[in-house]
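Mods, move this if it's the wrong board.
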Amino acid sequence: MTVVPGPGGGTVRLICDRCGGAVVAPASDIRDSDLVWPITTKHGWAGSPFALGPHSCPTCVALGLLGEDGRGRSTGPRPLPGSLRIDYEAAAAVVWVDGDVDASVAPTLRDALAVAGLLRQSVVLDLTDVRLIDSTGLGVLVRAHQDLRQRGGNLCLAAPSRFILTVLHTMRIDLLFPIFGSRRQALDELRGG
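Not the wrong board. Structure tokens:
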């Protein structure tokens, strides 16, 4: 079941069957507890009009993570390319990457940052589990920074390794990004606390 009662009364939680991301919406947005298409449509989700799903969040839809049966119907989720996840917090979208950011991961990361930037003004790139970044990865970061800046947003880096900090400094792009010691610090700062 991918639409369940939400926290507190009067809300429902729509859960992505692919990535586990969720949104909470007023229960008043739906008139029939089995028919949830008003919520999925309002929030840009794809999938079944019924509560039992499957449902996919805008990120998974935009990244093309749903297979098609040739007639435009979803055949269910496909594996997420690379090790990447997007979490939507109130203050920002957080893109988490596991592993090196190189030419093999760059296209997926580029798409994820673009989608995250469409859904939130600020994006935090969580680099906790990234050891290395190559020139292709740096290009993705600079482009995402430029795209977000044009829309009045920003790209923050959280928990970059010493190597990544050195690369950013050597390439003289370290001042482009607000850099934080952890994801939590970045989100706290973006919330104004």
